[in-house]
């Protein structure tokens, strides 16, 4: 039980690192929460800091989801009474919770898309059958984004498709459960975006800018 709790705490703290907030302070000396959407995530960092730093934040947010799942599974997985699948899922969920509700910013974080992608990359490295599901989910995200140029819409569509793909390709209870949980997390974090999408007011990403 000690190793499970330790793994959850470490993964939560890693997920809690507010990458976009830190880069906003370091690069422009501003609080990213006071600009753009006010979100502490890669999309708002892209708008505020530019492509280079925005992509850097995106990569780091992905890594802080992937690395804890991969590393902690190796360090602690065999020391717990849980199956490897279950332990990895707990670690992944803790990372996402850390990003969404970071302890370093009074439990107000990002929307979790990049970190969720990182977690799925980590899970696909440890759980058989997830690579195909992850690949198809990324394809749906890219296709939606290319057609709409709306990042939030692409994220919502990917979130809706992921649990359906788990049912189709990996119909085991732990994987279906994580699919549903991740989908709910992302959709709830995008409630305001969904409202703006339905009203036709959600901004599109300007490739030239």
Notes on the structure:
With 209 residues, the chain is mostly helical. It has one domain. The protein is built from 10 helices and no strands. The longest helix is centred in the first third of the chain and has 26 residues. It is globular, with a radius of gyration of 17 Å.
Key features of this structure:
209 residues, mainly alpha, 73% helix, globular
Q: Please write the string of helix (H) and strand (E) elements.
A: HHHHHHHHHH
What share of the residues does DSSP label as strand, in percent?
under 5%
Number of helices: 10
E-strand count:
0
* Number of structural domains: 1
How do you describe this structure in short?
This protein is mainly alpha-helical and 209 residues long.
Secondary structure layout plus pairing:
Blueprint: H1 2-16, H2 19-28, H3 42-49, H4 51-76, H5 84-100, H6 113-126, H7 130-148, H8 151-169, H9 173-189, H10 191-198
Helix pairs in contact: 1-4, 1-5, 2-3, 3-4, 4-5, 4-6, 5-6, 5-9, 7-8, 8-9
């Amino acid at each position: 039980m000690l190793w499970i709790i330790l793994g959850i705490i470490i993964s939560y703290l890693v997920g809690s690192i507010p990458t976009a907030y830190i880069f906003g302070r370091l690069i422009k000396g501003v609080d990213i929460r006071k600009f753009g959407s006010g979100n502490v995530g890669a999309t708002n960092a892209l708008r505020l800091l530019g492509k280079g730093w925005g992509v850097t934040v995106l990569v780091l947010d992905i890594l802080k989801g992937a690395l804890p799942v991969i590393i902690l599974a190796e360090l602690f997985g065999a020391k717990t009474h849980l199956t490897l699948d279950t332990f990895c899922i707990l670690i992944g969920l803790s990372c996402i919770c850390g990003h969404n509700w970071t302890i370093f910013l009074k439990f107000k974080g990002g929307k979790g898309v990049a970190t969720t992608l990182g977690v799925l990359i980590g899970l696909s490295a440890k759980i058989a059958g997830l690579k195909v599901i992850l690949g198809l989910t990324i394809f749906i995200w890219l296709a939606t984004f290319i057609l709409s140029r709306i990042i939030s819409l692409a994220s919502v569509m990917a979130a809706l498709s992921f649990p359906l793909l788990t049912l189709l390709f990996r119909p085991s209870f732990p994987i279906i459960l994580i699919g549903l949980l991740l989908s709910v997390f992302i959709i709830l974090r995008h409630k305001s975006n969904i409202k703006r999408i339905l009203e036709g007011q959600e901004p599109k990403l300007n490739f030239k800018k």
